[in-house]
Amino acid sequence: MGSIVKPLSLILPLAFSLCFSLLSSQSADPTPAPWPHQFHSVLFMNNNGSLQVVDLWYDWTNGRNFNIIQNQLGKLLYDLEWDNGTSYIYTLDSNQECRVLLFPVGVLRPNWLEGATYLGQKEVDGFLCNVWQKVDFIWYYEDVITKRPVHWVFYTGMTAHVMTFEVGAVLEDPKWQAPVYCFKESEKENAVFKSVVSHGLSRAGLMTG
Ligand SMILES: *[C@@H]1O[C@H](CO)[C@@H](O)[C@H](O)[C@H]1NC(C)=O
Ligand SMILES: *[C@@H]1O[C@H](CO)[C@@H](O)[C@H](O)[C@H]1NC(C)=O
Q1: Can you tell me the mean pLDDT for 48-59?
Q2: 202: pLDDT confidence band, cut at 50, 70 and 90?
Q3: Residue among 82, 181, 184 to mutate when testing ligand 2 (max atoms within 8 A of CB)
Q4: CB atoms near residue 78 (< 10 Å)
Q5: Which residues, if any, are the signal sequence (predicted)?
Q6: Ligand 2 binding pocket includes 62 (Cβ within 6 Å)
Q7: Which of 24, 62, 90, 172 is the most exposed place for a label (fewest CB within 10 A)?
């Protein structure tokens, strides 16, 4: 007799807790973590086989964002964005290239992923991630446990792999100064630029809030 009662007393609580976890997982989809107001990240980008390493300094607190873009065996580009919509894209070599661009929207807001559609979980780069899609423009992968971004894919096929993610890291103020040749009357327009993070997102009108 005792041999029947015991297993039941073990199984019932188990069955109950299973029911509860199924119910709670159906009740609300996870939402992406807002971006920290300041962070530094090294990104590995692949745009149809063209590779880049990007130093991303996101600094919402000071209304600025910096992409320092090393093209593989190629140009080192500085893409400095201010929240007033002005971007300076320049080299610091003897070519002294600089382009000043105006965007109607400024730096990505920390909550720019709000309203994204949850697609479920998928393993990417060896990390189990929650996946969201935002307006057919970006697919965003975030580590289920740590909530850190791991990977994103633009609709163009351009992919980013997040190599480091240092919350609270801030680039020193003097590094945010565009060179003097950005402030000449006629800027050089001969450089070819690829939008990396914010530019592409801003153009798609992804700004929220
Ligand atoms: C990707 O690269 C291949 C090989 O260089 C090229 O043929 C193709 O047109 C490129 N695709 C896009 C979308 O740029
Ligand atoms: C935006 O801010 C930057 C940095 O302070 C400045 O250099 C630029 O002239 C400003 N642009 C406009 C349109 O006010």
Answers
A1: 98
A2: very low
A3: 82
A4: 21
A5: 1-28
A6: no
A7: 172
Q: Tell me the Cα Rg of the chain.
A: 22
- The mean per-residue pLDDT over the stretch 30-56 comes to 98
pLDDT tens track for 105-138: 899 999 999 999 999 999 999 999 999 999 889 9
- Element housing 10 (H / E): helix 2-27
Q: CB of 114 within 8 A of CB of 208?
A: yes
**Residue carrying structure tokens 């050089």:** 188
| pTM recorded for the entire structure | 0.79
**Atom of ligand 2 at shortest range from CA of 178:** 7
Cα(178)–Cα(51) distance, rounded to whole angstroms? Answer: 25
Q: What is the separation of C-alpha 14 from the centre of its chain, rounded to a whole number of angstroms?
A: 40
